[in-house]
Amino acid sequence: MTDTIAPAVENPFGWIEDDGDAAVIEWQRQANDRTVAELAASPNAARVAAAVNATFEDLFAATAPERFGDSWFRKVQIEGRPNLVLTVASSPTDAERVLVDPSDHDPAATIAICHPSPDGTLLFVGISVDQAVAYRVLSVADGSVVREFPSIAGYALGAWAYDNSGFFYSVLGMKTLADGQVAPQYDVWWQPLAGEAELQPTELDFPFGWPVMSADGRWVSVMANQTAPRPRWIRRIDGGEWTRVLAEEGGPAGSMYKGRFVGDEYWAITDDTSGWCRLVAIPADSFDDPSNWRELIAARDEIKLVSITLCGEHVALTTIEGGVMRLKSLDRQGRDLGYPPLPGDGAFGLMGFGFIAAIMSDVVGPDGDSCVFLHSSLTSGCGVYRADLRELTVEELEASAHPLSDRELERLSATGPNGPVTYWVLRKRSTPLDGSAPTIVTGYGGFNAPWIPSYSAMGAAWTELGGLWVHTQLRGGGERDTQFWNEGRMHRKQGTFDDMFAVIEDIHARGFATPERTGVTGSSNGGLLTCAVFTQRPDLIGAAVAQVPVCDLVNLARDPVPLNIVKADYGDPAIPEDAAAMRAYSPVHRVRAGTPYPALLCDAGAADTTCPPWHARKMVAAAQDANCSDRRIRLRVREGTGHNAMTRELFIERDVEELTFLWDELA
Questions:
Q1: What are the Peptidase S9 prolyl oligopeptidase catalytic domain coordinates in residue numbering (predicted)?
Q2: What are phi and psi of 593, to 5 degrees?
């Protein structure tokens, strides 16, 4: 942190930030009601709704069966229940018993977190209503409440002790800096099953951290930095003290050391010598002495190492190769045993979007010497699979409910100012590539998170309607090496947007689409991307839909949660150099009066604490004031929803409304 104060920036729409101002909320209500009425009255709404309902899958929340002890846990949608429920079964294919139904608490409630104990007899669960989370421990045998934890406030990430005596959890707290300022900081607590929580002496030099327990329960680590994770503290459970590890002198500043304990070694995927990453085994008792490390897999160009999971006597290594995910089997000595054959090119994980969380968590769930996961692609919805890491075979446990057999998928490349950009074009075989089909281009490009061509419910519905769906892999994302990430983050964030411009220009040059029939959409960081296209290159598109966007990079500090998140990838607006770089692409500050803008829909969650709805309000107000075209600039704020956290019914409603808006504007 620097003592220099960033220069003041004009804030003409600052009045619309205040959620406590009745006039602001009335403005939001009127704007939202207008949008709802317009979209409901669209002549395209019924056709869009039919396509969405035929292809919808909730990839944000549905999970693969995951084994703990002798029980298998899974979040699923059950006919007749409004929300995803948590089930438990004796095998991944047996009939399931509902253990947690959040709608028992509130019709709009969702399961925020669920952490079964290692033996599968207890469950630490958080039920969210309007982003307020109620935590409790349940008995898996009968669903009874063992204990409630009203003292845990905020989103908690937990890790059970092996003997079920309690769990570690991290939650957002506050700390006082050397200069007396108060700053947000994730604290780690030990919560015994009986007794009061104990704050752990694990001071972090990153604003975000979370506990991880080893598979055998002998070690616990506190990981930090959600974009380039590394253990900052480790502790041997049987009487050991917390030990700080990987201080700057113990490894290159900013290097990732993401991994898991394997016995008394910590196996780490690290970019300390190559951006493509190598796998090293680090003795837990000499963490900070690289001369004792063993290299298990050397870095190789074009093979991105992503995640490891201990599975019996084997280790599942996840990689990204050619923009899609692969699974590699290793033995406990680190020997490469080969690749089990996956169902196709795409993505896999414990969640439908599990690969997005791969930077922080395991991708697959262990089952002896096998692992279980969901797999999907742009042409097929999620199926459940088990890979035998010894025999290198893959078994289908549950077929995809949405095999899109009439789709065609093509992988292409565009050239931007920073180099090549990979993208995929999805369409029905009957849809022409002559510029007549309405086209949506989507992307993410941030936080070192991989954006793999997995099943997209919106993409499936859009192509069912006769449109083109374009999936991009942009700088700033985690699909390639560390350089690829760094070329689209911090002071080089513009690299993400330049890649998006290159893809759109390429599909126009190929004759696949025209500007007036091209739309863009993205969520969260992808919402920022969408608004950047809208403000920087309005000539390239006819419409944009920004889901839960962050639009004002200058005034982020008013909210501690998003500020803590964006510091890792955008910068700190309190630092003048960062503030100047952020303001240069901040969408609200790039709006120019008298510009003929394309159509815009900003879609926010009323209870979203990650990208609060004032960002969407402010973007819409600024764009409406500046726009000189006849295209619509609209706001939608959804009650009872958070940051892509909502019921199945509300997800479907959002998809229908957004695709109706885009079809109205582009078809």
A1: 455-664
A2: -60, 145
Instruction: Give me the long-range contacts of 392-400 (CB less than 8 A, separation at least 24).
Output: 392/329, 392/337, 392/338, 392/339, 392/340, 392/341, 393/340, 393/341, 394/340, 394/341, 394/342, 394/343, 396/343, 397/65, 397/92, 397/93, 397/372, 398/93, 400/376
Amino acid identity at 194: A
Would you tell me which CATH number, out of the four given (1.10.1060.10, 3.40.50.1400, 3.40.50.1820, 3.60.20.10), belongs to the domain 14-56+403-666?
Answer: 3.40.50.1820
Helix axes 648-666, 457-465, angle to 10 degrees: 40
Are the C-beta atoms of residues 299 and 274 closer than 8 Å to each other?
yes
Note the pLDDT tens digit of each residue in 249-288.
444 456 899 999 999 999 999 999 999 999 999 999 988 8
Residue 250's closest CA among 204, 288, 293, 294? 288
**Cβ within 8 Å of residue 30, ≥6 positions away:** none
- Cβ-contact 58, 84 below 8 angstroms: yes
In order, the DSSP letters of 90-153 are: SSTTS--EEEE-GGGT-TT-EEEEEEE-TTSSEEEEEEEETTEEEEEEEETTT--EEEE-TT--
Question: Which of 495, 502, 482 is CA-nearest to residue 581?
Answer: 495
Amino acid at 219: W
pTM score above 0.90:
yes
CA 478/CA 496 separation, integer angstroms = 12
